[in-house]
Amino acid sequence: MYAYQWLRFGKHHLTCMGVASGRTRPCVYLPQNVSTFSVNSMSPKTNSPYSSVDSGRYSSLVRSVVKSRVSAQTPETLEEENEHLYGPVVDNKSQTRVKRQSPESRAPKLIWPLMDCDRAVHTFEGTLGPPTRVPLQRGPGRSVVPSVTRILQKTLSPEQLFYLERWKKRMIADLGEEGFKEYSEGLFRQGNLFHNAVEDILTAEKSAKDTGPTDALESPEGKGFVESISHILEDVSGVRAIESTVQHRALNYLGIVDCVARYRGVPCVIEWKTSERPKPYLSNTYDNPLQVAAYVGALNNDDNYNYQVEHGLIVVAYKDGSPAHVHQLDSKQLLEFWQKWLVRLEDFVEQK
């Protein structure tokens, strides 16, 4: 509908205004083999006012308008298009509705440092005994502290929710309700399998879990994941924490870090991820950088850890053994994602 309105508007505008002003005029297509009558065959031929039209430019305009009919639409683009065509929406009180800024463009109301420089801490010296494993307190007696994952899920943008819901509907249409449930459970088991395999390699310890590290390494999926990250594990050393809880008591949130270790000599919070599609760019990892920044901020303010970290690492592994993609977050990048995390945290608190 919008493309049709634009086409009518553009044609009418160019017809009415273009000829008089000398600007671009519409291209008129005449049928072929039409005889013309001239009063005086010797009189000079008068040029049509459309002879100098820029047909290429006008054709591009038409193609762009028609193309918009099949372009991807989101709630945000539909709203912007409506406002462009019909003006801003006005409510019953005749007040112009003000659009809320997205978390990506807002600054946090409270600036909280990523690192706690006032704490007396030791330097990151690598393995000083077994890696730290602070268990997550479960059960009725534990305090209710929201997790990083929950906060991010509850503060997704309208655009993120739109694409997530569209993906879910497509998957259900292809697999059915039960099939989609089995698919989701399979992804969860696959993630646990991968983490168990990495844990076994980094700590060389046995475990009594239902899916033990040895089983994870011997399974086809486990072997594929290990092969995918083999070139990365060579650069990981000095493991200080594995599957360990970090909590920011001042900001009241917690999370479980996959790993804290050196990557090519630099102390990092490392997140191991799996994906069925390649993710060669940091933008492909969606909210994972915010998750890493939240973990780093919590770790730096948690008394269970006597060191500070200001770098992050996201490793995306693939079941078929394809080389994993590595996304490093330096101190500057991590600080930027930390600011975005603080905004999401504020949004979560305001929802309560």
TrEMBL record:
Localization (cell): Mitochondrion
One MF term in the entry's GO annotations: single-stranded DNA exodeoxyribonuclease activity
Active site: D258, E271, K273
CC terms in the record's Gene Ontology section: mitochondrion
Major place of residence: mitochondrion
Keywords, in A-Z order: DNA damage, DNA repair, Exonuclease, Hydrolase, Mitochondrion, Nuclease
EC number(s) per entry: 3.1.-.-
InterPro entries: PDDEXK-like_dom_sf
GO biological process: mitochondrial DNA repair; mitochondrial DNA replication
Keyword Nuclease set for record: yes
PANTHER family: MITOCHONDRIAL GENOME MAINTENANCE EXONUCLEASE 1
Similarity annotation: Belongs to the MGME1 family.
Task of the protein: Metal-dependent single-stranded DNA (ssDNA) exonuclease involved in mitochondrial genome maintenance. Has preference for 5'-3' exonuclease activity. Necessary for maintenance of proper 7S DNA levels. Probably involved in mitochondrial DNA (mtDNA) repair.
Protein name: Mitochondrial genome maintenance exonuclease 1
Organism of this sequence: Muraenolepis orangiensis
